[in-house]
Design brief:
The protein contains four helices and eight strands, in the order ααβββαβαββββ. The chain is α+β, with helices and mostly antiparallel strands. The strands form two sheets. The protein has a six-stranded mixed beta sheet. The protein has a two-stranded antiparallel ribbon with strand order 7-8. The radius of gyration is 19 Å and the shape is globular. This is GNAT family N-acetyltransferase.
């Protein structure tokens, strides 16, 4: 006999995730290899665009790397700063870190039809899937990109005017002049 519950339970969720990982490792040599490799650890990746004078948030990218993939979860630029290629710079910096510091070979992301599929296509991403009516009336696109090449921006041009500095918290920041 069983009963079904619908409550949120963090402990059960953790246990369920562990059991699924165990099953995946048992059934997949790839997952088994990843489990025992540094590439199998998911690592957060965040890139922030801050106003120089005030430190106010002007944009940012939140993602993660795992198994030689960059997964972009969030990318946003303040409406007052759009059109200045700042989204391209944020994405390019995340791709650079993923490629050069974390040995990622590919990137993926999801975006809705009213957000930025055209922007991502211009950055070299290609649509590999669509989910219609998610939510109703909206199409979600799944896009991927190869992260080949070093020292170039997402459109293949060498980046000019970028300089790297320590940020005082153990991270590196890149400054772009206008």
């Amino acid at each position: 006999m069983f009963r079904i519950e619908t409550e949120v339970d963090k402990e059960r969720r953790t246990e369920l995730g562990e059991r699924l990982r165990e099953t995946n490792v048992e059934r997949s040599p790839v997952m088994r290899t990843l489990r025992d490799s540094p590439l199998g650890r998911e690592e957060p990746l965040q890139v922030w665009l801050l106003e120089e004078a005030t430190g106010a948030l002007a944009g940012g990218l939140v993602g993660r790397t795992w198994a030689r993939w960059l997964h972009v979860d969030l990318l946003w630029v303040d409406p007052g700063h759009r059109g200045a290629a700042l989204g391209s710079r944020l994405l390019g910096e995340a791709e650079r870190v993923a490629r050069e510091e974390r040995d990622c070979a590919r990137a993926r992301l999801e975006t809705w039809d009213f957000q930025a599929p055209g922007f991502y296509r211009k950055q070299g991403y290609e649509v590999v899937g669509e989910v219609t009516d998610y939510p109703p009336g909206v199409t979600e696109y799944i896009l991927v990109k190869s992260l080949s090449g070093k020292g170039t921006s997402q459109d293949g041009r060498e980046e000019r005017g970028a300089r790297e500095e320590q940020d005082g918290r153990g991270g590196l920041r890149r400054r772009f002049g206008r």
